[in-house]
């Protein structure tokens, strides 16, 4: 099965004023698989780490040709504030035997939450040409009380919300919920039900994280500088 058959980034042309996913032709098989990886592979990893004080962000790398999971991981900022989910996923992937590696051009990158500037840079430097995300930066701020992504984009890069280039010469970022919205009604209803269940799950994880995160003391085992 080719990446073109799956409707992956290099086969999609979108206008620059569109949010990624709004003009892309949705691929039900791809959407199903992205949700499945979140539901059954990322969420269990994240739930385990949230109780240790880590954030509720997860990521995975899939093979573009058959959508099999290459690796899935989650946030571990209590070990190192740079160990965001996307960075951890890339780190652990490159720690695996080289003969198991897949060319970056053959990787579909999944992030549960729209990557922050650190993680989008990591995706860029690792050579991936795409990422798919479920929750937006605005969701991270408004639903999960973690607004650093938007704050950094504004304070450091002078970008207002949504102002960075989701389509550029390095990669294209796609919103899974945008893809769901553009599905045929027969597929959209089932996907929306699964998306709603995922939102409920992540709200529970968020509540747990907010209750248990470090209180600003650097000697707290759960201390994260930007918690």
Structure description:
- The protein has 227 residues and is α/β, with parallel strands linked by helices.
- It has one domain (9-212): Cytidine Deaminase, domain 2.
- The protein contains 7 helices and 5 strands; from the N terminus they run H-E-E-H-E-H-E-H-H-E-H-H.
- It has a 5-stranded mixed beta sheet, with helices on both faces.
- Helix 3 (117-125) links the parallel strand 3 and strand 4.
- Helix 1 (28-50) runs parallel beside helix 7 and helix 2 runs parallel beside helix 3.
- It starts with 27 loop residues before the first helix and ends in a 15-residue tail after the last helix.
Main features:
40% helix, 227 residues, single chain, disordered N terminus, five-stranded mixed beta sheet, 7 helices, globular, alpha/beta
Classified in CATH, the superfamily is Cytidine Deaminase, domain 2
Low-confidence stretches: 1-7, 9-22
The termini sit apart by 42 Å
Kindly provide the name of the CATH class: Alpha Beta
Helix fraction bin: 25-40%
Tertiary shape: globular
Task: Write the CATH fold name.
Answer: Cytidine Deaminase, domain 2
Largest sheet: 5 strands, mixed
Second-tier CATH architecture = 3-Layer(aba) Sandwich
Number of domains: 1
Radius of gyration: 17 Å
Q: Could you state the order of secondary-structure elements as H and E?
A: HEEHEHEHHEHH
Q: Looking across the biggest beta sheet, what order are the strands in?
A: 2-1-3-4-5
Mean pLDDT across every amino acid position: 87
